[in-house]
Amino acid sequence: MSAPPRPSNRPPRRDTPQRGQGQWALGYREPLNPNERMKKDSDGLEVRQRILDIYSKTGFDGIDPGDLRGRMRWMGLYTQRAQGIPGGKTAVLEPEELEDSYFMMRARIDGGQLTSDALRVLGGISTEFGRDVADVTDRQNVQYHWIRIEDVPEIWRRLESVGLSTMEACGDVPRVMLGCPLAGILEDEVLDATDVIAATVEKYVGSPEFSNLPRKWKTSMSGCVDHCTEPEIDDVAFVGVRNEAGEAGYDLWVGGGLSTNPMFAQRVGVFVRPDQVTDVWAACTAVFRDYGYRRQRNRARIKFLMADWGPERFRQVLQDEYLHEALPDGPAPAPAKHDQRDHVGVSRQKDGLNAVGFALRTGRISGSLLTTIAGLADEYGQGRVRTTTQQKMVILDVPDERVEELVAALAEHDLQVRPSAFRRGTMACTGLEFCKLAIVETKQHAQDLYAELEKRLPDFDTPIGINVNGCPNSCARFQTADIGFKGSMVRDANGEMVEGFQVHLGGHLGVEATFGRKFRGHKVTKAETADYCERVLRGFQERRTPGESFAHYVSRAEEAWLL
């Protein structure tokens, strides 16, 4: 099995209904929108040298607009939102009117794997260059704000000194590759995907072969029995499975994604051995590169191609045109063992030590606290730390006799190993504070919301996901939450336009996966979210059947119960 070839310039086939979608494989290589023109003019990877040689010296005002609002994403950099611009202006103002002269910077952490030294560097960068603000994202990255272009070369130098980078953390490229934070740690995993993630990252991240994809490309590779990387909503996912002979490998899923057209990934139906993963991943990525729809930006994700093709045709093209060999049929993986996928709490490692997972404040943290966590990982463990896909963190290798000491030490910094259901289940995107796309503020509001619900419903102990999103793009996955809030402007009781949310209820992954229900555009103002959650959750407590989940309750609930 070999790496996929570069696309040919063969003439378009006249018999296909998709020939007008800007697909390279059909001969349509001319740029069809401004994003494609920007990428053709200069590969996004080339901006790194301009940052080092030019922009870090000229400052913000010297940055070429095509680099500033396009190619710099290939190096993990977005301009952040200027302070004080209300959400009602988001769709009205031009990008240059919304942006500040500072950057959001994303450091990619493939597989969520960190050493204490790496975490200390991450923390120090936040403290020294980012006003001591950092976010642990729901894709296992660490995200900074307030970054000056003049400081980027030094930040890169520090990250690279501990094996990290911002390379392709954003842009139309292979983004961070998700992995189980407890890969290789827990006894019951199907298999450990650490090595296949590392091999794939090493070979292809930063390669010109995949530096111009139609849009972002989200990958997960995991043998976790809890499906903690949420493969249902990734562009391409390798999900741990055992075939009929008992051999451990991966089931291939393609075409998941959220935003304004949410779709679940589809099983391709093949069994992928561990030594095939990197080549199969590259072949899937090449299919997206060559056949992905480039004409319209809002249809340039693999989910749209997969919806049109179906898994059978995708498999045929994958095998015939890229792998040049057939993959064996494979079974579906077992359902997720646990409904909660965040690895919060104390878990026994297969070597007899313990993994201690803890909840942050909706992913928001300081660089100083990241540095403190690095110290705790050295003091109580062996310096190994992990990030999760639920904006949480885990310290590994803690002996039995030191677990409770670590739990108490974390609690001193409001890092909860045994959080309330509300603290544990609440996530939030970056929101209006820094994001140019956002309509409402999210981080602080989500923290205030779970704190208020803890007061109003102190005995509520059912797992509940409350995801707060600042816009329709679903960075915080509002469609798959029990209670999903999508930011929008809403009229309050006085008829004034204020920050608020459209409500999505009963989203669920795993068995009988479904996206949250909407009710005639039902919206609540920001001030009403705690009252709304309390009302709906009290109704759930009163009407639920024994052992019933909130998502199942919503699926059978009368509409009046949920408004």
From TrEMBL:
Domain Nitrite/Sulfite reductase ferredoxin-like as annotated: residue spans: 100-161, 348-412
Record keywords, A-Z: 4Fe-4S, Heme, Iron, Iron-sulfur, Metal-binding, Oxidoreductase, Thioether bond
Region feature (Disordered): 1-43
Gene Ontology MF terms in the entry: 4 iron, 4 sulfur cluster binding; heme binding; metal ion binding; sulfite reductase (ferredoxin) activity
EC number(s) on file: 1.8.7.1
Stored Gene3D superfamilies: 3.90.480.20, Sulfite Reductase Hemoprotein, domain 1
Keyword Cell membrane listed: no
Record has Oxidoreductase as a keyword: yes
Biased composition (Pro residues): 1-10
Superkingdom of the organism of origin: Bacteria
Cofactors: [4Fe-4S] cluster
Domain Nitrite/sulphite reductase 4Fe-4S: 171-324, 423-556
Reactions mediated catalytically: hydrogen sulfide + 6 oxidized [2Fe-2S]-[ferredoxin] + 3 H2O = sulfite + 6 reduced [2Fe-2S]-[ferredoxin] + 7 H(+)
Cross-referenced PROSITE patterns: NIR_SIR
Record-stated family: Belongs to the nitrite and sulfite reductase 4Fe-4S domain family.
Role of this protein: Catalyzes the reduction of sulfite to sulfide, a step in the biosynthesis of sulfur-containing amino acids and cofactors.
Official protein name in the record: assimilatory sulfite reductase (ferredoxin)
Source organism of this protein record: Geodermatophilus nigrescens
